[in-house]
Every structure is written in structure tokens, then in C-alpha cells.
Amino acid sequence: MAMAEVLEDQAVRQIALNVKSAGGGMLAEELSKSLKQEELEGIIEQLIEAHFIMREYAIICQKTQKQISRVQTIEAIDKAAKLGFVCSCGRPYSEESIKELFRPTSELKRMLDKSLWATARLVSVLGKLGIQDSQILLNLEEGPNEVDAAVDVDGLFLMIELKDDEFAMGHAYRFGSRVSIYKPHFAVIIATKGIAPEVKDHFKRADQKSKVVDIEHLNELDRALCKVVDEARAQRASERGPACRKTWAELYYTRPPDEQAKADPGATDEQRP
Q1: Same domain assignment for residues 85 and 117
Q2: Average pLDDT over residues 83-98
Q3: Local confidence band at 261 (pLDDT 50, 70, 90 cut-offs)
Q4: What CATH number does residue 244 fall under?
Q5: What percent of the chain has pLDDT over 70?
Q6: So what's the pLDDT on residue 189?
Q7: Nearest to 103 by CA among 20, 199, 33, 32
Q8: For the chain, what percent of residues have pLDDT higher than 90?
Q9: Most buried of 19, 51, 106, 129, CB within 10 angstroms?
């Protein structure tokens, strides 16, 4: 699984944010009060495997409840005890309270800053659809949880807003204003925490030529964007003539199976005709 895809799951992303916000490290017992232990352990292993967090062990003085040292393995504590390391209270390290903690890696900080993980995920999906980096213009300046993208699909303009939060009416007004100014052929809203019902009603009533597409769940991102890109290409092909009316999906599914697998490694055999 790609690094950006690990953070696509909201529960995983929240644990990652908790660890990042702690800076120097967060005790395992403080990571989440809402998840079952089995779920939490699974998330932790995903984040460690992706090199987003590191596991360490804090040695806590039982008398003062203060941290006296931190090591990366349990074996290091046993070795310290054999070498004669003791707490200021006189107890050997191995007899003090040992607690598991996690600290963020520089890669996790990089991926969470300005929602870079979401940008990487979006560009990855567009790349699978045959859209080159040179056809994508990104704007990361709107805010830490927002990504704007302008995409060229065979000469048609897609305007995409990806928000790592709920997309509410305040966002809709600003987005609608940009749609009116730039007049894209397709205006795509992607929100990791859903799109408010009143936003959908607002765009249904709006007098605009751009087609507004809502994507509320990131696990729908690949298929939903594929549908948008296919529609854009079909529209462009219809303007050029009957000979050009193959969609990306038609071109993709007529490839040999080995080429299909390379183009969309995440698809199952059942999903490929």
C-alpha cells in the first residue's frame, strides 16, 4: 500500500495526528479512548510499517512518576539493568514502570503538513488515468486542510477542491465563486469528512454551466474520478468526431491483462473484464 493511502483511513489519520501533535512522543495508553485495543494495535502496526511513527519505551520512576529515560527496545532496559543503571530512587531500571510510547517521524510530519498525503493521493489517481504531471496545477496555499487543483483533460478544464474536513456552506460559497470566475467544464468536490446536505442542494439550484461532482468517501476516489475523466474525454471526442469516441475505460479494458495490472494494480480480477 502506498504511503498516502495509509493516511486515507480517517481513524488511522487521527491516530497519526495525535502522535504528531504530541511532538516528543505519546504514550500508547493516551493514543485513543474510542478504539478497541485490537483496532488500535492494527493501526499502530500500519503506521510503523509505513515509517510514520517509531515505537519506544519510557522508563517511569514509580516513586515520582517522572520519566527517567527512554529506549527503543525492551532488551536495552535489561542490558542497562545488568550494567548497573539505577533510578535516582535506587531502583534498577528493569524494576521501574515501563510504558510503550510512539513518536512521529519526519516523513509523517511532511505528509500531514498542508495535507500533502491528500495531494499525493490525488496526483496518483490522476496519473493512473493517464494524466501527466504537466497537466495538473496545484495550489496548496488556501489552508492546511485544503488542496486546489486545475486539471487539463484533453483540453477540457477540471477544477478540483480536496478538503481534509467536512465541506460546509462557507466552503461552498467560496468554491461557487471560483467556479463562476474560472468556468471549468467540471467542478469536483472531494471531502474526507463528507459534504453537508445543504451544499448539494445549493449547487443543484445554482445557475451554472459547470457540472458539479461530489466525492464524499476517499475509497470512491479512483472510480469516481475515472468516471469524470471518461465523461470529459467522451465529450471532447464527440466534438472531434465519431472516430475519437473511445473513453479511457474502453481503452484500458482492451489492453492485455498484464498492461491492465500495471495501470491499475489495486483492481481485482473480478473488477477487470
Answers
A1: no
A2: 87
A3: low
A4: 3.40.1350
A5: 85
A6: 95
A7: 20
A8: 45
A9: 19
**Among 235, 237, 232, 175, which residue's Cα sits nearest to residue 206?**
175
Q: How far is CA 230 from CA 160, 177, 219, 258, in A?
A: 16, 26, 19, 22
> Is residue 121 located within the same domain as residue 238?
yes
Using DSSP, state whether 128 is helix, strand or coil: helix
Residue type present at position 14: Q
Q: Are residues 33 and 130 in the same domain?
A: no
Give phi and psi for 8, each to the nearest 5: -70, -35
Please give the residue range of the domain that contains residue 237.
111-271
* Separation between Cα atoms, residue 114 and residue 145, nearest integer Å: 6
At residue 191, the 3 state secondary structure works out as strand
Q: Are residues 217 and 177 in the same domain?
A: yes
Q: What is the pLDDT of residue 248?
A: 45
Q: Could you tell me the pTM of the whole model?
A: 0.70
Give the residue from 104, 123, 149 where a domain finishes.
104
Say whether both 228 and 95 belong to one domain: no
E strand map for 93-226: 97-104, 136-143, 146-153, 156-163, 186-191, 211-215
Residues 23 and 129 in one domain: no
N residues, the chain: 273
